[in-house]
Amino acid sequence: MGKVRVISDVSKINTFKEGEVLVTKNDGSRLGAGYENCQAIVTNEGGKTCHAAIVARELGVPTIVGTQGATDILKTGRTITVDCTQG
C-alpha cells in the first residue's frame, strides 16, 4: 500500500519518493533506482519474465505488469493497495 507516483518518462525518476508505488508505461531497466525504494510496481507493459518482474521477485516487491492502462487510470498522489496474492 502506498501513494502512486506515475513516471511517464525515465528522466522524471528523480521525482519518485521512497515508499511510493511506482506506476510506469514500461519496465525499463533505467528505472532501477525506483525499484529498490518502492512499496510496489505497476506497469502497462511486460510479462512475468520482464525486467520489472524479475527485479521485483529478487527484492520481494509486489508487482503487477502488463496492465495495458495503469498510467491512464492511476494518478499520482492516490493511495492504492497492490494485491499480488492471486497470482
List its salient traits.
87 residues; alpha/beta; Glucose Oxidase, domain 1; 5-stranded mixed β-sheet; 3 helices; 20% helix; globular
Characterise this structure.
The protein contains three helices and five strands. The two termini are 17 Å apart. Strands 4-3-2-1-5 form a five-stranded mixed sheet, covered by helices on one side. The protein is α/β, with parallel strands linked by helices and 87 residues long. Helices cover 20% and strands 21% of the residues. It has one domain: Phosphohistidine domain (Glucose Oxidase, domain 1), CATH 3.50.30.10.
Mean pLDDT: 88
Question: Which structural class do you get from the secondary structure elements?
Answer: alpha/beta
Sheet of most strands: 5 strands, mixed
Q: Regions with pLDDT < 50 over 5+ consecutive residues?
A: none
Number of strands: 5
Inertia-based shape: globular
Proportion of helical residues: 10-25%
Looking at the structure, the CATH topology is Glucose Oxidase, domain 1
CATH superfamily: Phosphohistidine domain
Supply the number of structural domains. 1
Strand order, sheet with most strands: 4-3-2-1-5
CATH architecture descriptor text: 3-Layer(bba) Sandwich
